[in-house]
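From the pipeline queue, job 12 of 40. The input is one protein chain; the requested action is below.

Action: predict structure.
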Amino acid sequence: MYVGDKLDVYNDSSIILEKKIHKKIISWVTILVILLVLLVVFSMVPFNIYKPVIGKVNITDNKTFLELDLNYSGFPVNRYNKLYIRNKEYNYKIVSIEDNILLLDINLDESLKIQNNIVNVNVLKNRTTIFKIIRNKIKKGFGV
């Protein structure tokens, strides 16, 4: 099909079918698609978020308690009754909350059972994914 003296390249299907796509373009598009798929897959992998807290060991009547100051620590009370001290997992039970002091019943190692010992505690806050974190940041940014 001719328009005047010029060849109409956009309506001639034989020219479109014979057009060659460079191998560099195909390889870059393939790499881009693979990286995009990997990004989506890795953004869906769940991981744990920990909250660092400072606690004080209190031993009374051969029972070990861990005192946490709620004003300072912001201890996340949730369904996971696990905390980590020196990369070791401990189960705890909440005994009382008085005057913003949280008292946990816990069975610690002998090396940590020292009266008024200050320990660094990591509390399992929740499980999340990178996708959820990005989604929440976008929602907060838009004020929704």
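Job complete. The longest strand covers residues 47-60.
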